[in-house]
Amino acid sequence: MHELSIALCLIEGVLAEAEKQGGVHVETVRVKVGVLSGVDKDALEFSYRVACEKTPLEGSRLVIEESPAVIYCPTCVADRILPSIQHFCCPECQTPAQDIRGGRELEITALEVALDHESATG
Q: What is the pTM of this model?
C-alpha cells in the first residue's frame, strides 16, 4: 500500500510548514489528487488517519479534491477533459491523446489552521 508512504510524506510536509508558521495547529489538510496519479482515495484517507495517530495532526481532516485527466488535442488545438481514463481520445473529435496535461497531480493545496484565541484577543 503505497498510500501509507504518501500519507507519511504529506504529514512530514504539513508538520514542517506548521512549524515554519510558528507552530500553528492544523485542523484540515487539503490535497489535490489526479485520477492518473495511481493513488486510491479511500486508502489515502485511511492511511492518513492511521499515520496521524500520536502526532500533532491527530484528529485533523484530510480533504481530497480529485482532478480530472486533461489532454491536449492537436486537431482541436485545445485542452480537453477526458470523460473516462479508459478511452484516451479527444471527446470532441476522437483524435488519440498523446499529450497529457493534467491528472497526475498529488499536491497539498491548503492548510486550515486554528486561530490562537490569546493572540486574537490580546
A: 0.82
Residue 116 in grid coordinates: 490562537
Q: Return contacts of 92-101, CB within 8 angstroms, 24+ apart.
A: 97/71, 97/72, 97/73, 98/71, 98/74, 99/71, 99/72, 99/74, 100/36, 100/69, 100/70, 100/71, 101/70, 101/71, 101/72
Structural contact between residues 7 and 51, judged by C-beta atoms closer than 8 angstroms: yes
| Distance separating alpha carbons of residues 37 and 94, to the nearest angstrom | 23
Taking only the tens place, the pLDDT of each residue in 21-78 is: 888 999 999 999 999 999 999 999 999 999 999 999 999 999 999 999 999 999 999 9
Distance CA 37, CA 69 (A): 10
In order of their start, the domains of the chain are 2-114 (3.30.2320.80)
Report how far residue 22's alpha carbon sits from residue 18's, in angstroms, rounded to the nearest whole number: 7
